[in-house]
Write a structure and sequence with these properties.
The complex is a heterodimer of chains A (220) and B (73). Chain A is α+β, with helices and mostly antiparallel strands and 220 residues long. Chain A has helices spanning 2-10, 54-72, 85-99, 114-118, 158-174, 196-204, and strands spanning 25-28, 31-34, 42-47, 75-81, 107-109, 133-138, 144-150, 188-189, 209-212, 215-218. The model of chain A has no long low-confidence stretch (mean pLDDT 94). Chain B has 73 residues and is mainly alpha-helical. Chain B is 52% helix and 11% strand. In chain B, a hairpin with a 2-residue loop joins strand 1 (54-57) and strand 2 (60-63). The model of chain B has no long low-confidence stretch (mean pLDDT 88). The chains are: A alpha+beta (220), B mainly alpha (73). Chain A binds chain B through residues 27, 30-33, 36-41, 71, 76, 106, and chain B through 1, 3, 28, 37-40, 42-43, 47.
Amino acid sequence: MGDQLEHHQNVVGIPRLGMPAPQFEVATTHGDLRLEDFKGSWLILFSHPADFTPVCTTEFIAFAEIHSQLREMNCELMGLSIDSTYSHIAWVRNIEEKMGVKIEFPVIADLNKETAMRYGMIMPSESKTETSRCVFVIDPEQVLRAMVYYPLTTGRNMDELLRLIQALQTTDEHQVATPANWRPGDKVILPPPATQEAAEERLRDSSLECTDWYFCKKTL
Amino acid sequence: MGCIDPNDPLSEAGKRLLGALEVPRTAEEVRELTGEPLFRVRYNLREMVKAGLATKDGERYSVSEAGEKMLER
């Protein structure tokens, strides 16, 4: 019972896709920011276990390397860990000094774990004092569109995060879905028709590449 | 925690931002003028208002009298 209660206290819950992203007002390395400050842009909100740790350092460098590509896609980046602003500042300065990489995105100092709990970033069986490697993709309307969770041991794949943003933006722009391993330029998938009439119409549409009525692709 | 002290001289970026408010503008319009990311524009505008250097009317921000004096320094 005690374990269950402790578990409940440490894991408030995980947000749901398609719902408004949990709001926050937080201290960051770029001043006090609110989620609503990002309205109109895509946002990748990600957590890391701790400052001055090796895997997190490789991730910060990798995030910095895709930052300008993300910006071109109207997507901002923001990190989070249960460390102080001063620790974050010291760490990003150290990364610049020792690795030659400037970290230009804000990093949340979530010392009271409030935002981490709200987003379900703490996995108590891994660590009660560190956030796991979580990624939340929030769209310009501040709706939560994707979540990715990696364990403490495993650094994230930046190519996949870029691909995820490209896929979501393509979906929004063209009302299509994207198949496994999709890359920009590849064919996209039409959502399955909801009626028999629509299914028959789709098979007559020569602009589509249909294997069957429910499985149609097209080139954008 | 406010980062703009009305007694300190403004940075070049601060002057650019405040200068953009000679005409009432929305955060989005300021972003277009300055090229700064929208979240940073919104944060800086909020700090300018807190420091009394700008005023907000609806969605538009304008430079205040105190802000004008800062720009003249």
